[in-house]
C-alpha cells in the first residue's frame, strides 16, 4: 500500500444540503457528494495517478487544480479528455481513469 493510501482525508464543511450520490470509478461503486469535483473525489479515494503521458507513458495526476494544465483528464460517461478538476460530481456518473495506458491529450 502506498503512503498516500494510508492517509485519512477529511471533507470539510459538509452541510445538510450536500446530497450524497453514487458514482462509479473504474467500475467500482463509490459514494460522493453532488457538486464536489471529480478530482477531489479521486484524490480522496487515493487515485493519485489518473492517466499516462502520450510520449513517455509516465503516470500523471493533479497539478494545477484549476483547469489550465490538462494533467487530470479522465473519461466520464464515455467521453475522454474531461478535466477532473473542473467537473462536478453527478449521481450515476461513470469515471474511468487511464493510468495503465496512454491518452492523446
Can you offer a commentary on this structure?
The protein is mostly beta strands and 105 residues long. Helices cover 10% and strands 27% of the residues. The protein contains two helices and seven strands, in the order H-E-E-H-E-E-E-E-E. The chain has a five-stranded mixed beta sheet with strand order 2-1-7-5-6, covered by helices on one side. Strands 3-4 form a two-stranded antiparallel ribbon. It starts with a helix and ends in a 9-residue tail after the last strand.
Q: Roughly how many Å apart are the termini?
A: 29 Å
Strand content: 25-35%
Using the alpha-carbon principal axes, give the shape.
Answer: globular
Summing up helix and strand content along with how strands pair, one would put the structural category as: mainly beta
Helix content: 10-25%
In a few lines, what is going on in this structure?
This protein is mainly beta and 105 residues long.
Features:
single chain, 105 residues, mainly beta, five-stranded mixed beta sheet, two-stranded antiparallel sheet, 2 helices, 7 strands, disordered C terminus
Q: What is the topological layout?
A:
Elements: H1 3-6, E1 20-25, E2 28-33, H2 38-44, E3 51-52, E4 59-60, E5 73-76, E6 79-83, E7 94-96
Parallel strand pairs: 1-7
Antiparallel strand pairs: 1-2, 3-4, 5-6, 5-7
